[in-house]
Amino acid sequence: MLAVSLLVALSSCGKSGSGTPSGQQAEPGMATVTRVVDGDTLQVRIGAEDERVRLIGIDTPETHGPGGLRECFGSEATRRAQALLPQGTRVRLVRDVEPRDRYGRLLAYVYRIADGLFVNLTLAAEGYAATLTYPPNVAHSKELDAATRTARSADRGLWQRCGGPDKAL
Asked: Is residue 62 annotated as part of the catalytic site, yes or no?
């Protein structure tokens, strides 16, 4: 299943036909971070196209949600995502079953090219995110659940500061 997800991801991220500034075809699944929107949403450049990416399987506290909603530990989660993925960071985007969410964002598991760090898992393990599973996008749900349970039991991040996710300020 993971191998199939990886093949689908590498063959379908970005918009077809977009080239790099030098005119060469962008490598499928590869992108450059242009901005961290919040703890679980990025802006990336794939070839010559800008895309918003929603990290699959996790949910970080809101920093600018509906009606101006702000949640406990949202700013910290955003800052951690910014530290993990500064502007210019090369990443590999791996899709699951559904390519986009209802807002048109690409859905992806995000890996840093430089060291292979699985960003979604890191945010969960460090206590910056809770697990959020939307079937059929479940390729990494077990490991994300385990990381979240470990962070909660170790009282890390939002579990220590807020007592859990979804606590409005």
From this structure: yes
Find the CATH number of the domain harbouring 90.
2.40.50.90
- Global confidence as pTM: 0.84
- 112 in catalytic set: no
Could you tell me if residue 91 is inside a domain? yes
pLDDT in tens, 5-52: 433 444 445 443 333 344 444 567 999 999 999 999 999 999 999 999
Q: Which residues contact 130 (CB under 8 A, 6 or more apart)?
A: 58, 59, 60, 124, 148, 158, 164, 165, 166
Selected catalytic residue, list 45, 54, 80, 95: 54
Which is it for the CA torsion 114, 117, 123, 125, positive or negative? Answer: negative
From the list 45, 92, 95, 105, the catalytic residue is 105
Our count of domains for the chain comes to: 1
Does residue 167 sit within a domain?
no
Determine if residue 14 is left, alpha or beta; phi over 0 gives left, psi from -120 to 50 gives alpha, anything else beta.
Answer: left
CA distance 15 to 18: 6
Residue 152 annotated in active site:
no
* d(C-alpha 155, C-alpha 127), whole Å: 8
